[in-house]
Amino acid sequence: MRVALFVTCINDMLHPRTGQAVVALLERLGVEVGFPAEQSCCGQPQFNTGYRQAAEPLMRRFDRAFKDYEYVVTPSGSCAAMVRDNYPRIGAKAAAEGRGRGLVDAAAFAVPKMYELTEFLVDVLKVEDVGAYFPHTVTYHPTCHGLRVLGLGDRPRRLLEHVEGLELRELPGAEECCGFGGTFAVKNPAVSAAMGADKVRHILASGAEAVCAVDNSCLLHIGGTLSRRGAPVRPVHIAEILASTGGTAGTARNARTEGSVR
Amino acid sequence: MSSRDMMLARVRQALADVPAGEGPGGEGRDGPPVARGYQRVHGARTRAQTVDLLAEHLADYRAIVHRTDAEGLPGLIGRLLAERGARSVLVPPGLDVSWTAGTDVTLVEDRASSTARELDLVDSVLTGCAVAIAETGTLILDAGPDQGRRRITLVPDHHLCVVRVPEQVVGSVPEALPRVAPDRPLTWISGPSATSDIELDRVEGVHGPRTLEVILLSAAPETDRAGSREHWAGSGEY
Amino acid sequence: MSGTYLGMPAFPRAAATATRDTRLRANLTHATHTIRDKRAKAVAELDDWAQLRAAGAAVKDRTLRRLDHYLEQLEAAVTAAGGQVHWALDADEANRIVTRLVRETGESEVVKVKSMATQEIGLNEALAGAGIRAYETDLAELIVQLGHDLPSHILVPAIHRNRSEIRDIFRREMASWGRPAPEGLGDSPAELAEAARLHLREKFLSAKVGISGANFMVAETGTLVVVESEGNGRMCLTLPETLISVVGIEKVVPSWQDLEIFLQLLPRSSTAERMNPYTSTWTGTTDGDGPQTFHLVLLDNGRTDTLADTVGRQALRCIRCSACLNVCPVYERAGGHAYGSPYPGPIGAILTPQLRGLAGPLEESLPYASSLCGACYEVCPVAIDIPEVLVHLRERVVQGGPVTLGGTRTVLQPAKGHAAERAAMRAVGWAFDHPGALRAGMRLAARTRRLHPRRLPGPGRAWSRTRDVPEVPAESFRDWWQRTRGTSSGRGTSSESGTSSGPGTSSGPGTTSGPDTSSERRGDVK
Question: Mean pLDDT, chain B, as a whole number?
Fold first, then answer.
C-alpha cells in the first residue's frame, strides 16, 4: 500500500503537530507513509474566493506530487472535499473553455485516491480502535465539509469513542457551521464572529476540556475566538488525539497547567 | 418583435448548449430522464387501515372527525349543527336530500345571484368531497354537484364535509391526482385555515372556515366499533 | 427589481448592523430553529425523500431545457380554457400590463395573494403610482405592508417581527387602511390573527379584482396551482370577478402527474406540514364559479439570462419553499433585509445577482454572503447546489467572464475593488506553486514569530477584532520531516517519530507546538 500524507498548507505552516500526529498514528498502525515534498496547497482558498484559474497550477502540482501513490491521506476535511468535489468541476470548466482535457484527467486520478484521515482509518484500514489514550473530556465539532461534502458521518465519533480515557461530550448545535468559511471570515467578519461566538457558547456548554475536529482551519477560528474570550477550552485536531498513547505521565499535567495556547 | 417572440427567442438562445431537437416536440433524443423511483404510496395498508390513517391525519391538523353510516348520518349532521348553534347551513345543489333530513336549521341554496356578503351571513356549509388522501389528511373538492362552487366552502366559518369511506379514500398524493380532473377548479383542504406567521406559532383559523368537521360515512352499517367511535367523537376531536 | 430596495448597503455592512440588533437575532433564531426542526420531522416521515428530491430536480431540469416548448404549450392550454396570456420581458412591462388590466376593470382597489413575483417587480408601488391601492392579504404581508416595512423571508415575510411589535403595528396602522384594530388588542397570535381576519374580510367581500402569483403552472392542461395556509389565497382566487396572475416562466411543469412530486416536496420543505391547509388549482375560467376573467402574465425579468448560464441555471428549479433560509447560519444572523431583495438567504444570494446581473456593490457582495457550509444544498427539495453556484458567481465577480444581460451575450469585466485581493491571490498562488520560496518565507516567519502580534493592523483587522491570531510554530511540518526523515518521501527512523517524542504522546488538549517548546509556550499564556 503506497500511502502519501497530504499535510495541507495550513497544517504545514501553522499546525505541524497535526502532520506529525498523522505520521505517528499511521506508522503505529503499520502504514508506511510518504511525504512528497512537491506538494503544496490544494487551491481551495483561491477557488472558493472566485480565482479558479489560480487554483489550476496547484491542481496540476497535486497530480504530480501524488502520482506514484495509491492513497493520499489528509488531516483536513475541507481540503479532501476540495479535491473530491471541486477538482472535477475545475477540469470540466477548463475543458468547456477549450483548454484541453489535462485537468479532467488530473481530477480523475486525484479523486479516487483522496481520503480524509478518519475515512482512511475506518474505510481502508478498517480500524476503529487505534490504541489511543487521551484522558480528557472532549467535544466533537463536525466540520461542514466533512459532514456534508465528504459524508464522514459518525466515523470520527466512532474513532473517538474507542480512545481510552476519553469522555465524549455532546455538542449542542453540532452540525451548525462555526463561521470560518475561508475568506468568509474576513469578507463578512461580523456574521462570521457571531457564528463563532455561538459555536463557542455551545462548546463551553458542553463542559469539555477540549474541542476537536477534522480540520484545523475551523479550529483556527474556534480557537482564536476561545482564546480571545480567555476560555480554558483547547482546540485540538482529531489526529493529535488519535496519535496520543499511554505511557507518558505528562498528559493530564499539561492540560491542567498550560493556559490557553493558540 | 412582440415581447412574446422576444422571450421565446431569448429562451432558445439561452439553451444553445442543449442539443437541437432534444425532448418533446423535437426530432432528436429525449431530454434527461426523470426517474420516478419514489413510492406510489408509503407503506402497505388494508382499506380500513387507510381510512384510519386519514382519520388520524385529519385530526393531527385539528379537523374534528366523526364516523357514521347512512342510517346515522342525518342524525349526526343534525346534532353537529345544533351543537354549533347554527341557524343556517349552505347546501350545494346536488347534495343528497336525506343528509339534511335530521336538521331543522334553515337550508340555504347557493344561487349565482347571491353575493359574498350574503354567504358571509350563513353559519355553516355542508358538502361531500371528490377524494380524500390518507397520508396527508387532505380532502379534495372538485366543485361537483354535492360540493358546489368554491366560494361556499370558503366564506362560512364552519364546514361539515362528508367522505364516503372507503371508496373515496386513497393512500397518497400520487394516487389522488389521477382521480381528479385538472379542468375542474379544485380545492385541496388539509385541516382548517391556519397561519404560522407570528413567531412560527400555529394559529387555526384566519380567513377560511375556522372549524372543519369531517364525517367518514361508511356504506355498510357500522358495528360496535362505530358506536364507540361515535361516543368518542362526541367528546370533540381525536 | 423593485426600486424599494435600491440603495441598500452591500451585504457585509447591512449584515453587521443586523448582528448588533439583539431583538432581531432572537426573533430569527427562535423562528428558524422552530421551523427547521419541524421540517426535519416532516421529511423523515417519507423514506423515499431522496427519490422525490431527485425526481423534482429532474423534472425541473427537463422542463428548463425545453422551456420554449412548454411555455407555448401552456399558453395554448390557458387560452383554450378561457384565459388570456400576456408576456412581460421585464418588471416595467409586467407592471404596465397589470396596471392596464386593472384600469380596464374600472376598479381602483385590488386584493393580493402573497406573491414573490409581484414583490420582485415592485407591483404594489407601480399600482400606487397609477392610483390603484393593492391590499396584501397574507397575514405576514399585511404586517409588512402596515408597518411600511420590507419582507425578510420568503415564507414568513414578517419573521423579523415578534408579537408585541405586530400588535403595535396593528393598533397604529389598521385604521388608516380600513377596519381599525379591536379595542384592547392583545399580543397573542390568536388575537392578532383574529384582528387580521376582521380587517381583511371587508376587503375580500367587496373586491372585484384579485392579483396572485402561482406555485406551479401545468403546461399540458393550462392549470395554475396556488399553495397556501390561511385561506386568503382562496378568497382572492375565487371571490373577485377578475383574476390576474403574475408568474415567472420557470414555474411551468410539463404534466398534471408531475404535481405528485412537488405537492409532496413543497409543503414538507416549506411549512413543515404533510400538506398545507389549502391548495387551489384552476384552469382558465369556469362558468359560474370564480372569476370570469383570467389573465396570466408570464414574467421573464432576468430569468432567460439566468437560463443562459449552464451552472447558474439550476437556480430556476427553485420552488420558493424557503427551507434554505431556515437552515442558513448567515441568514439567521444577518436577517433578510441585508440581502437587499425579496429573495433573501442562500437562494437569494444566487438568484438576485443572476436576475439583476452583477449590477452593483450589493449584487457583487451577495455571492460572498456564505461560509459555503452546504446546509442549504442538503435541505433543498430540488437539489440546487447553492454553494456551487455561489462559487461560480464569485468567479464572475472577481474574474469577469461570459454572461447574458437582457438577452445579449457579453463579457463581464472584473468588479472594481478586488485589485488588491486579486494581486494577493496571485502572489499566494505563485508562492504555493514555488515551494522553495514558500519555505524560505515560512522559515522567516518562524524566526520572527515572537514579534507577531495577536491583533493585526490593516486588512487583518477583520480577523483579529474578534479572534486571536494563531502563533507561528518554531518549525514547519516540512522542515520537521526534512530534519527527522531527511528524505522527501518514505519512512524515516522510527525512533524519532515513535512513541517517546512523537507528536501527541505528551500533549494535553491544545498543546500545539512540539514537546520541546512546551516550557517556553507557557510564557505565552495570556
Answer: 90
